[in-house]
Write a structure and sequence with these properties.
The protein has 13 helices and 12 strands. It is an alpha/beta fold. The strands form 2 sheets. It has a 10-stranded mixed sheet, with helices on both faces. The protein has a two-stranded antiparallel sheet with strand order 6-7. α1 (14-32) links the parallel β1 and β2. α1 packs parallel to α13, α7 crosses α8 and α9 (220-229) runs parallel beside α10 (241-254). The longest helix has 19 residues, at 14-32. It starts with a strand and ends in a 21-residue tail after the last helix. The relative contact order is 0.17. The model is unreliable at 356-372 (pLDDT under 50). The protein binds 3-isopropylmalic acid (IPM) and manganese (II) ion.
């Protein structure tokens, strides 16, 4: 398959983990006879420094002319500590999501049995965790009208949703649930928010066209506890932009490291793949960041184009790295491996899969049925 891939490393550890993801895609290209072209683009603080804009026109054009976008991370402490900054690196990512209409954000959360001792949760709580969050990504509080009074003492962020915005992401979530364990949980604040009541109304109506899927509506207050106490009770979670953001961060801690979870942001025309972890500026350039979330994001990219065998090759190679303890410091304090050597090992095991022939791992096929 011929694919043009835009590579936006962004800030912090973004570029170094994305380098490992590209290495793995190149290994897939070589091993499976594909033709991938990678083109780098600037985004975030790095782009602001070079061009004044967190998302330069050139990057936008590159993304629009590509089949898929591989995205690293965004944000630097300079701006975190300046709440009055007029333009922030994050604006680049938000603009990209909106401009490319990437309305469905898919975040699969799967426990790795071999890493269960890394989780702060008890083994029997996390064992078998396999859920996926469908987060609305282009509306809600993130994109509603914002205001700040002239004296700077009153601020607003409007949370606005239309039926159409809810309906299109809901259909994506129901279709995914149909292929999985046929359970969908809508997480909202319908006891408080008018937008949540609209979500419930729209989603409950849509549920009638998916009779095989069992819909549960749950308040965020309950869901935020239940997801940590009993992650196994969830299959597909559907949530608004803000609620989905919070829940997915919670899930980061469930499985033992923030460096393991990928995501896919899908629209009708474009698709972008990015690790859930942030830019982790403290680790920038130290070659200690975990590249697995970025590598799994590359696997989701392949999954999006139906390249399932290639996805399995990446997932097997990652599992091999866990098994051989070729992991970064967040997974094993005493490790002697860094970001690039973990990336090298995984890429090499994609090409030379002999080593993997004996693997019979329940996590194989990470993205198998999560992307439509
Ligand atoms: C995420 C991130 C972003 C978000 C930030 C970087 C704007 O936290 O993708 O979860 O809040 O959506
Ligand atoms: Mn987040």
């Amino acid at each position: 398959m011929k694919l043009n891939i835009a590579v936006l490393g962004g800030d912090g550890i973004g570029p170094e983990v994305i380098d490992q993801a590209v290495k793995c895609l190149q290994a897939v290209e070589e091993n499976f006879g594909h033709d991938f072209t990678f083109t780098n683009g600037l985004v975030g603080a790095a782009a602001m420094k070079a061009t004044g804009s967190p998302i330069p026109e050139e990057t936008l054009t590159l993304c629009k002319n590509s089949d898929a976008i591989l995205f690293g991370a965004i944000g630097t402490p300079e701006y975190d500590n300046d709440p009055m900054a007029k333009v922030r690196p994050e604006d680049g990512l938000l603009y990209l999501r909106k401009e490319l209409d990437l309305f469905t954000n898919i975040r699969p959360i799967k426990a790795f049995p071999v890493l269960s001792s890394n989780s702060p949760f008890k083994r029997d709580v996390i064992t078998g965790t396999d859920l996926v969050i469908y987060r609305e990504l282009t509306s809600g509080m993130y994109f509603g009208e914002k205001s700040l009074s002239e004296d700077g003492t009153v601020a607003t962020d409007l949370c606005r949703y239309t039926e159409e915005e809810i309906s299109r992401v809901a259909h994506m979530a129901f279709k995914a649930a149909k292929k999985r364990k046929r359970k969908l949980t809508l997480v909202d604040k319908a006891h408080v928010l008018e937008t949540s009541r609209l979500w419930r109304k729209v989603v409950t109506k849509i549920a009638e066209s998916y009779p095989e899927v069992e819909l549960t509506c749950m308040y965020l207050d309950h869901a935020s506890m239940a997801i940590l106490l009993n992650p196994n009770s969830f299959d597909v979670i559907l949530a608004s932009n803000m609620i989905g953001d919070i829940l997915s961060s919670q899930c980061n801690v469930l499985i033992g490291s923030a460096g393991l979870l990928p995501s896919a942001s899908i629209g009708t025309e474009y698709a972008m793949f990015e690790p859930i972890h942030g830019s982790y500026p403290q680790a920038k350039g130290k070659n200690i960041a975990n590249p697995v979330a970025a590598i799994y994001s590359a696997a989701l990219l392949l999954d999006h184009f139906g390249l399932h065998e290639e996805v399995n090759a990446i997932v097997s190679a990652v599992h091999q790295s866990f098994r051989k303890e070729i992991v970064t410091i967040d997974i094993m304090g005493s490790t002697k491996y860094g970001t690039s050597s973990v990336g090298d090992f995984i890429a090499k095991n994609i090409v030379d899969a002999d080593d993997n022939l004996n693997i019979n791992d329940e996590n194989i096929g990470l993205g198998k049925s999560t992307i439509i």
